[in-house]
Amino acid sequence: MNSVKKKKCVFAGVLYFLLICCAVIFCFPIFMLVSRSLMTTNEATLVPARFWPEVAQWKNYAEIFEAVGEYNGTSYWWLWFKNTVLLELGTISGTVLSSVWVAYGFTRIRFPGRNIVFAIVLGTMMIPSTVTMIPLYTIFSDLHWLNTLHPLIWPMWCGGGAVNIFLVVQYLRTLPKEFNESAEIDGANDFGIFLRIILPSATPILVAVGIGAFVGVWNDLMNPLMYLNTKEMWTLALGVTTLNTSSGDIGGIPFVFAACVIFSLPPLVLFTVAQKYFIESVVMSGLKG
After folding, report:
1. Residue 177 shares a structural domain with residue 202
2. How far is residue 272 CA from its own chain's centroid?
3. Could you tell me if 181 and 123 lie in one domain?
């Protein structure tokens, strides 16, 4: 083995060692989350902390559904989960469809002031959300939408957000315009081109936008806290945060950790399954700017 190969082997070994160390550091909080969820209340409060329980308390996961209480014979956990699923379906579909439709207009349709309008859309990213919080609350209150999912869903059907529009625009600019010209020669209109060419070709970026919308809604606490007043209308994010203040009534710290583990699984599984599309969309959207 010559010196060049030795240097490459040493470099690769050091690199993998550093990557393993980083992986251990980043995964350690997840390990502690899982281990605490399997402990008894006494074990979870020991000082110094234990890294693993003497006997794994798997029943913590089963009892969490009953421990949070019931509403008309249904566990609050399932009600929160149903509300979150409905919110996810409405938000993801609205974000994906409206953002790609707006981006299609900016990239494929010529109209006066297109660049100015696009600059204004991007400029809205500079506006803090706290500025629009009270006006939006007033509007939704006048529409009698408080304590419903409407204020959390319908705004995402109005463009999908400036960031998502920008990402989709950057991706669509990488697609050859000859696709549109060939379809126009064959007699396709704008809607036909959008439906048959743009949507299939933009699958990676739409998956990435959908993942971003999913995670944003799944972790959102502020908006449900503002608009959802009764406990049966809460989302999982809002419900899980309340377990900290009432942990003494529902079984202690291990139940809170068990709820956090269950709450963390869907985003983790989704990103693991769709990471190929996510990475591809990031690479493609950065080719032209």
Report:
1. yes
2. 13
3. yes
> Mean pLDDT of all residues in the chain?
84
Task: Answer yes or no: are the C-beta atoms of 22 and 213 closer than 8 Å.
Answer: no
Cis preceding linkage at 267, omega within 30:
no
Same domain for 53 and 111, yes or no, is no
Residues 6+ apart with CB under 8 A from 78: 65
Give residue-wise pLDDT tens across range 203-225. 888 888 998 899 999 999 999 99
How many domains is the chain built from? Answer: 2
Tokens describing residue 32: 């502690």
CA 40/CA 152 separation, integer angstroms: 38
- Give the structural domain span for 77: 70-285
Residue 90 scores a pLDDT above 70: yes
pLDDT at 127 (0 to 100):
87
Rounded to an integer, the average pLDDT of 137-148 is: 94
Statement to judge: residues 52 and 189 lie in one domain: no
Q: Report the pLDDT value the prediction gives residue 111, as an integer from 0 to 100.
A: 86
Q: Are residues 40 and 78 in the same domain?
A: no
- 33/117 same-domain check: no
> What pLDDT, in 10s, does the model give residues 157-183?
988 889 999 989 988 888 887 777 777
Q: Are 37 and 56 in contact (CB under 8 A)?
A: no
The rounded distance, in Å, linking the Cα atoms of 130 and 151 is 16
Query: Rounded to two decimals, what is the model's pTM?
Result: 0.82
Instruction: Please list, residue by residue across 155-167, b when 16 or more beta carbons sit within 10 angstroms of its beta carbon and e when fewer do.
Output: bbeebbbbebbbb
Q: How far apart are CA 51 and CA 36, in angstroms?
A: 8
Q: How far is CA 173 from CA 27, 42, 87, 177, 281, in A?
A: 38, 58, 31, 8, 13
Tokens of 278: 């996510």
